[in-house]
Specification:
Helix 10 links the parallel strand 7 and strand 8. This protein has a single domain, classed as Alpha/Beta hydrolase fold, catalytic domain (Rossmann fold, 3-Layer(aba) Sandwich). The chain is an alpha/beta fold and 340 residues long. The protein contains eleven helices and eight strands. An eight-stranded mixed sheet has the order 1-2-4-3-5-6-7-8, sandwiched between helices.
Length: 340
């Protein structure tokens, strides 16, 4: 009888500790304030956004930028005021669901994010076609757009896109070799995200052993990335991000949900996507640095081989933070928009 009571207590403790607290919704009595513009999506959720460049009414190019892991709508990594004015570029960035001031989406999937992007474009009246740029973990918004809303795309660019090791199109030996290149704690965190997603919150909040390095603000950047960051130290972004803004609604619906979606079971394999621009009316680009320690280059090379219609740009001496390297964001924008 004592053992039964002990087992029940243990299960109750485990259940409680794997259940995250409810999110602190922006604009609610106990939640953070709403400080920026938001659109109301079809399902009633709010999506917070920023606008950059020229007015959308006079723009030649309209871009929706999808930020990476532990980032937000203040991500200005590809914004260049002079170039945006010269080419008449309009860009909108947005907090993905659960980040910053965008409402969480407890049913978030790769498809739902693509539909959010389409909904955002329609609400802001961006027209029938627009460009999508996915940065790092923002890749699943870009892949989702190619899969679910290809008819709305003028072009797509991936910047150092994070890869799901369980996409069926990858050979097992290739993904295993790439998976083992990660720090041990990230191997565990990613594996838990895929195999036991209900445990991800507990795994990354307990104190017995290390969880995800990125959540702990210790990303596995390369030496070249750290060097670039050191050079930029003290400059700060043009628009400073408010303190604790990214995670202010809670870890569970921002970064934890991100891991579960990014490394969970996808509804499709990106390597089975059909070229959305068979007549070269648009283009898709994938940019990756050969010193990227976050995402192994071998996986991007394989994707480029399987999808030859993607323009693959491999950058020598460059790590994961591609737009921070001299001249790279200019090259990225011009290749996508001008075909240079």
């Amino acid at each position: 009888m004592i053992m039964v009571v002990f087992a029940i207590c243990l299960l109750a403790w485990a259940y409680k500790n794997t259940r995250p607290p409810p999110p602190q919704l922006c604009g609610s009595p106990s939640g953070p304030p709403v400080t920026g513009p938001r659109v109301t999506l079809i399902d009633g959720r709010h999506l917070s956004y920023n606008e950059y460049g020229v007015s959308k009414d006079i723009a030649n190019y309209k871009i929706i930028f999808i930020h990476g892991f532990s980032s937000c709508r203040y991500d200005e990594t590809i914004y260049i005021q002079e170039l945006f004015e010269e080419l008449k570029i309009y860009m909108v960035t947005f907090d993905r669901p659960g980040y910053g001031e965008s409402d969480p989406d407890p049913n978030r999937t790769v498809k739902s994010l693509a539909l959010d992007i389409e909904d955002l474009a329609d609400t802001l009246e961006l027209g029938s076609k627009f460009y999508v740029i996915g940065n790092s973990m923002g890749q699943h918004g870009a892949w989702g757009s190619l899969k679910y809303i290809p008819h709305r795309l003028a072009g797509v660019a991936f910047i150092a896109p994070v890869v799901n090791y369980w996409w069926s199109g990858f050979p097992t030996n290739l993904t295993m070799a790439a998976y083992m290149l990660q720090p041990r704690q990230d191997q565990w965190a990613v594996g838990v995200s895929h195999y036991v997603p209900w445990l991800v919150y507990w795994w990354n909040t307990q104190k017995w052993f290390p969880g995800s390095g990125a959540i702990a603000r210790k990303p596995n950047f390369s030496a070249s990335d750290w060097e670039v960051l050191a050079k930029r130290q003290g400059q700060g972004p043009a628009t400073p991000v408010p303190k604790d803004y990214i995670r202010q609604q809670g870890l569970a619906e921002s970064l934890i949900r991100e891991l579960r979606v990014g490394f969970g079971k996808w509804e499709f394999d990106p390597m089975e996507i059909v070229n959305p621009f068979p007549n070269n009316e648009g283009s898709v680009h994938l940019w990756h640095g050969d010193e990227d320690a976050v995402v192994p280059m071998s996986l991007q090379r394989y994707i480029a081989k399987k999808l030859p219609w993607i323009h693959y740009h491999e950058l020598h001496g460059v790590g994961h933070l591609i737009p921070m390297y001299n001249g790279k964001k200019e090259a990225l924008l011009k290749s996508l928009l001008l075909g240079e």
